[in-house]
Structures are given as structure tokens and as C-alpha cells.
Amino acid sequence: MLSVEGLCVSYGLLRAVQRLDLTIAAGEVVSLIGANGAGKSSTLKALMGLAPNREGKVSIAGRTISHIAAAQRVRSGLALSPEGRHVFPDMSVAENLLAGAAGASRADADCRTANVFAMFPKLMSRQSQLAGTMSGGEQQMLAIARALMSSPRVLLLDEPTLGLAPIIVDELAELIETLRAGGLAILLAEQNVEFALAVSNRAYVLDAGVLVKSGNSRALASDPAILAAYLGL
Ligand SMILES: Nc1ncnc2c1ncn2[C@@H]1O[C@H](COP(=O)(O)OP(=O)(O)OP(=O)(O)O)[C@@H](O)[C@H]1O
Ligand SMILES: [Mg+2]
User: Fold this and answer.
1) What is the chain's Cα-based Rg?
2) Is the model's pLDDT at 233 over the cut of 70?
3) Ligand 1 neighbourhood includes 82 CB (under 6 angstroms)
4) Helix axes 106-119, 136-148, angle to 10 degrees
5) What stretch of H or E contains 141?
6) What's the average model confidence in pLDDT over 92-106?
7) Per-residue pLDDT reduced to its tens digit, 149-181
8) How far is the CA of 43 from the centre of ligand 1 (A)?
């Protein structure tokens, strides 16, 4: 569903991502793991067309999208839930969701809102609450729900567990599994390596912008080098 070849991102002289190749199938969760500054967010931003200086080929369902702007990438089926959530704090839950469906007809937007509310009942009961007054976990769910409002085929999740209580992290794991089972392709960037390897089918390990390892998540979770470097074991 998503195919990436030779992705490079740079900021001036700093090469944040170097020649990354990556694929994700429909119904597959792939995680991108690595320490602070490894290049995870830069990768996701570049896929969305938001990193300023990028190279490489990105295709979604066989269609090359590397030359088109972010808004068009959303229309071709790519959506991002960004690191730090970035919900619109002075807008209500319902308005934040509508913003995620920009470009859709009113009828489509209403239908997608109903689907999202079925998946996130808590958001339905809070639909008129200002997003900035929601808890961290609620804002995270809203950020993911807003991304789903564009009916994506590929969902990019950047650090969704950051700052969440363990019980909410468990809810998030269930949500990711539900979305995967529904056929979505998911790319999950996480510093929480234990969580990422537990919820993903495959993983890519980035170190200073370079892909150092990739493979089956279960195998990586027992790889001594991964345990030592990322899980402190
Ligand atoms: N807008 C920017 N301008 C200059 N340098 C940047 C910019 N954004 C990121 N960088 C640098 O690029 C490198 C990769 O950053 P990136 O945010 O992609 O890492 P990350 O893996 O997402 O880290 P974290 O786990 O802390 O979120 C870092 O060295 C960072 O300082
Ligand atoms: Mg990041």
C-alpha cells in the first residue's frame, strides 16, 4: 500500500534521514523505532510532503505521490497524527474532526463523523468540549480520530503513547489492532520500543537517520542488540 525508496531528509548540512527504503501492506502495522533525533518524525513529515528538504520516491497503492503537496497526499489516502497531537485547542471536538475532513462533502463528513464516534464513544459525548480542555489521552484519541476523518488508506502515527497513562496505552494498542484488522496500513513512529514491537508486525530501526535493522517485530523484541540499546536489558 505504501512504498518508499531512497528517502532522504536534510536540514541545512544535517542529514536527518539517509536513503531509507520502506514498505507497508494493507492490514499491516509497521513501526519505526529509534532514539531521540533518529529521524522518525522527519521520515513521517517527508512522507506527508511537510519536511522542507526531501528526496526519494513515495507511492501509495502504486501511485507516485512524491511530487504532490501535502493536501493532495491526504486526498490520495495518506494521513498523519503528528507528534505532540496539535489539536486545535480553541475549537470543539466536532470542529477538530470536521477540519480533518476538509475537502469532503457535508454528507461524507457527517458519515465519517458518525463512524469515528462509533469507534471513539468518549469523543461523541465530548463533541462540544473545546479540544484544549481535554486530557492528554483524550487529545491523543482526537488527533487520531481527526486523521481518520480523511478516510486514509495509510495512517502515520507519530509518538501516540507519549505522556499517556498505562491504561490509555492499552486502549491505544486495541485501537491500532482494530484499525489494522479493518485493512488500514499503519506506520507507527515510537520511542516506546516495547509498545511499538508489541503492536506491530514488522519494524525498522533508525539510528542517526540510517536504517540499521529491520524485520519481524517479535524477532526484534528478543534480539539482544535491540534489548540492550532500546529496552535497557
Ligand atoms: N526543522 C528542523 N530544523 C533543523 N533540524 C531539525 C528540524 N527538525 C528535526 N531536525 C533534526 O533532525 C534530526 C532528526 O529529528 P527528528 O525529529 O526526525 O527525530 P525523531 O526520531 O522524531 O526524535 P524524537 O524521538 O525526539 O521525536 C535531529 O537531529 C533534529 O535535531
Ligand atoms: Mg519525533
Assistant:
1) 17
2) no
3) no
4) 140
5) helix 136-148
6) 94
7) 999 999 999 999 998 999 999 999 999 999 999
8) 10
Secondary structure element (H or E) that encloses residue 142, with its range: helix 136-148
Question: Cβ(201)–Cβ(29) under 8 Å?
Answer: yes
Report whether 7 contacts 17 (CB < 8 A): yes
For 192-214, how does the pLDDT look when each residue is reduced to its tens digit (9 = 90+)?
999 999 999 999 999 999 999 99
Q: Are 66 and 72 in contact (CB under 8 A)?
A: no
84 C-beta closer than 6 A to ligand 1: no
Partnered with residue 157 across adjacent β-strands are 81, 188
Sorted by where each begins, the domain ranges of the chain are 2-85+153-230
Q: Which CATH class is domain 2-85+153-230?
A: alpha beta
Q: How many residues does the chain have?
A: 233
Q: What is the DSSP letter of 92?
A: B
Ramachandran angles phi, psi of 98, nearest 5°: -60, -35
Regarding the beta carbon of 27 and ligand 1, being less than 6 Å apart is answered no
Instruction: List the grid coordinates of 206.
Output: 533508525
Mean pLDDT of 62-90: 95
For residue 32, which ligand has an atom nearest its CA? Answer: 1
